């Protein structure tokens, strides 16, 4: 099965988007005549695997390499670098060029920046005195469809750059990406944003509209009805919790990269010692589509059921005389066998993690923190983790969860502050002083800070009903099933924004970080956007133009699989007359988010 | 019938009619074509006139200095200038496609003039050989020229937009060619210019790479003159024996052959459309030859100049401009004497209708079925008319007929009216662009507008572009720039007002481009005012920088949210200003400041330190120093010899002092102090153990390593030195002992005193190491019954677990345990059986 997702069922024509990106890339490669060595930055290479098959690239006379510090070994006289516009990469490239010069190699160099050339990069090339040797171009890849309802801007570091470094380049990128979508699918009439970065994106988007006005005819044709921008900063709680959906768990334990997960082949029942294999995870896999968003407990049940029924069929087929049509049905079912085997293997592998007492204890602790029932137990638990030198990221996840729900490490009671500081000291002692930089970053981001005001968490939790008792994970009636009892804050916000806009919940929004805005673009007042969404339940609008309204939900700073699951759950519910497309800087989890903040000295 | 007079002016060439309506009586005075070199641009373009210095002429009351004068096609003077260019005699003069006048003089210098007779710098030269050998002849086409030198060499400028001359292959012949003709690059197979050269009795095809001789029977003997048709497909040749031949461009087949009485070559040989060829000797009538039938003679008593167009020839004389064209079929069908075509009848019907005669109806009835075709013919004929009243009559006829057609495309008339309005507007003698409808279609409206703008007919250009629904940006932009150039006397504020008034007509127009033009004209202040109105930051910011408005540029770049723009400004200022001034500019601006820090962190460490010091952010400097100390450690030199420890610790000490400066950073200060201390201890440990495994590990790791190495004293020392809590100490030691699998020591340790955190660490360490037996030593000691139950459960002792749980009287726990056991067993056995079952597929 291909890693490139099948986008046929997408509510938007994402296929055309991907094909455009393919064409752009092929054009770049075709325009450089002759044999050439294509050097791709590894992460970008991963992204490109969602756009085009590498085997296709080879047709254009290409030797493929990954960018590293070592110089490029090739016989080609043309070297084409395809890299994101990141400063640190420029040094490697410059050193490659210098290396070639010192060896007396004469080569033509090209750098194609993704998605655009940036002065800061060119400046370094100039300072390294190689700028004049290089032909510079752009590959305007702003958006990559990850699946039929997910778009990624592939900005892994967006959150860190914005919050730690104050570099808001990624916000411009997001706005540009949305603007590009608008030029294909029509201007989006309603924009709702919550969070500082989101509001900035909305502002930049507005600017882009005034700078390059769209024809009013484009406005009328808008396929996307509403844009909702949510800042990760608004809800740091959800990603710090352990995801409990099938796909979420796979991501937590095995890390999903570019729509696939890499595993030891032995886990998948292929006996090849020590070999890794890639398992694609996207909606082309029918079974996955069915179970990816279910709570893992339920997934096990479903798989069990399916296997049992298959077993029964098999037994019947081998005993009794079957008619041809019955045989045909059976064979049809057999086709789903590889998918079944794959997921049974995966699920079994996951259950080795989930059955560990330490995992259950962690879940317990997360719930304790979310319910904000006891400082002491939490801090003690965290301290013990430090003493046991458990992986630092796990410690930090809980610590951040603790700090965020309390809007800082509590200081009203001197004892707690002392304890908290003591905890940090213990952390440095256990993991090394180099993590001082990480702590400094965490403070800049606001994930770890001293408490300055009373926490709003309890109010927010109650007002939005974030804790749902008695969640039936098998037949859920609320999004809380994705965390077995906790309804992700971000999704509650999105849900309300889609249904009724910000206005009815102003009071709660004020308790959450960052401003919020709601704009209706001029010139399209006639379109029944808002009303459509509100009057959705009567279903009349659906008939009017034959399809559901489309909402683009953009998470600035990343979204987790559990949140995606919750959104899909919402849009599949009866009485919801909208389809959702999710845009995100990157798909994240607590682990990867904390990792970006990680910075060691040296 | 009224139609007779129309057709009476036509001449018949075999079966085709030709007409030559007068476009303009020329408004110029005292211009004698025979005394002057004249260059006329096609598509009704301007006419350049200069006294011919190769002829001896009598000067009347004029200056001896020659004047280059540029007229419209109607003879209205646009501009003039005195010709003072060095380089010898003017050899060739012609207009390019974008209406630049190219003048080539003897020494190969190319002078370029715009329509306002302003010299366009720089001049280009055709090269050294041309300079030495002198140019003797030039053959132009729309976008290039081929020059012949006295030495018989050929030079070419293939594209006037690039102005890059090149030499063509040498012909090798000793004689100079008799004649030349050029096949434009766009019509050749190779895409390069090909020159047909008649030398002796051969014809050569010369291009950049080589020379070919034309083979074949078609042309024999000396050729005196050649002209290629405008579509590059045919060639007209005047031979030595006075015959005119037309062949296709590959010399295959003769399409026309006519024997002229004169063996002298005609002065001018021109294609009239693609149907006939005109020959002009200055003392005989103008001769028009077609493929068949007798030629037509036109009588003139003044010198003429033939200007070939795509659909005819314009004939310029001293007093008038005429347009010789084949009469369009639609016009013939209406106006031919005795025509009974539907169109003619329709035209006639209108006449009757106007005179209120019933015959109108009769006519209509006659042509009932072919009415649409008649209407179409009237519309088409109207398009080809130059006479406005006849256009009107024809269109009225069309409209009259249309009323009786049910299924005629109604917008055809409207469209034609639109086109004609545009054409009539530019044909006005004041504007003087006599385009025919075919020429207009070939030229395209946008080029026409560009030409109007170029000739400073901005208002007309604006109205036309509005009328035909085109973007007016080009016109307004050009107007604004011209206005600025022309308005040196108007003060900035007033001029700004004037400009804005017009610029706002066009959405999305680039104010920055206008501002850049103002700046180029030395009006920096106006530029600054204009650029303020530019909505596109990406255009605004670079301009602001170039006019020295750095502060505003920084502000605008920040507002745009485009970090790349901010960097553009940052680097600009960084380069230009002193560090302190630079720091001052960015310090109060968060985005530029943060971007600078982020860049400098990666690339300009020392400079960043200066910044932090100058802005008093000592803790940031401290962090940098601390980081440096680590980089020092990563340096391979550091691990070899100990001397580098000194510098490292020194850096950390410095960092600590800086942290200590502010109260908020006591935590950091303390950490730095401890770090320095740790490094010292680790260094000592490495010396004493002679193992380089301590430096850069954490305190806990150091203790562990000590214990693993069996150096319990050192471990104890580290513990006390850093006041390691008893809890941590127990966890560390228990796990360290478990790593070495020293179970005896572990047991001893457990008995040292009652462990401050109970026996859980001991149990965990043993369970993790998979030592059930060892674990059982400690499980019973667990104080909490629930913990005990779970521990039993972990090592798979279900019964003991259940006992402990029931002792604890915890039903919930009991249930859970039971479930775990069941589920695990059931689940795993289920999975196993499933795998067996499914493996028959071979997956």
Percent helix of chain A: 40-55%
Report the major sheet of chain B. Answer: 6 strands, antiparallel
N-to-C CA distance of chain B: 96 Å
Pair with the biggest interface: A-B, 66 and 68 residues
What shape does the CA trace of chain B take? elongated
- Total helical segments of chain A: 27
Structural class of chain B: alpha+beta
Strand content of chain B: 15-25%
Count the beta strands of chain B: 30
Shape of chain A: globular
- Mean model confidence by pLDDT of chain A: 85
The strands making up the biggest β-sheet of chain A line up spatially as: 6-7-15-14-9-8-13
The largest sheet of chain A is: 7 strands, mixed
Number of strands of chain A: 15
Rg from Cα of chain A: 26 Å
Membrane topology (chain B): Peripheral membrane protein
Protein name (chain B): Protein VACUOLELESS1
Subcellular location (chain B): Vacuole membrane
InterPro entries (chain B): VPS16, Vps16_C, Vps16_C_sf, Vps16_N, WD40_repeat_dom_sf
Describe the structure in your own words:
The complex is a heterodimer of chains A (602) and B (843). Chain A is an alpha/beta fold and 602 residues long. Chain A contains 27 helices and 15 strands. In chain A, helix 7 (169-185) packs across helix 8 (196-211), helix 13 packs antiparallel against helix 14 (324-335) and helix 18 (392-405) crosses helix 27 (590-597). The longest helix of chain A has 24 residues, at 296-319. Chain A is globular and about 70 Å long. Chain A starts with 13 loop residues before the first helix and ends in a 5-residue tail after the last helix. Mean pLDDT of chain A is 85; it is low at 524-544. Chain B is an alpha+beta fold and 843 residues long. Chain B is built from 34 helices and 30 strands. In chain B, strand 17 and strand 18 (202-206) form a beta hairpin. In chain B, helix 18 (563-576) packs across helix 20 (590-603). At the A-B interface, helix 5, helix 7, helix 8, helix 13 and helix 15 of A face helix 18, helix 20, helix 22, helix 25 and helix 26 of B.
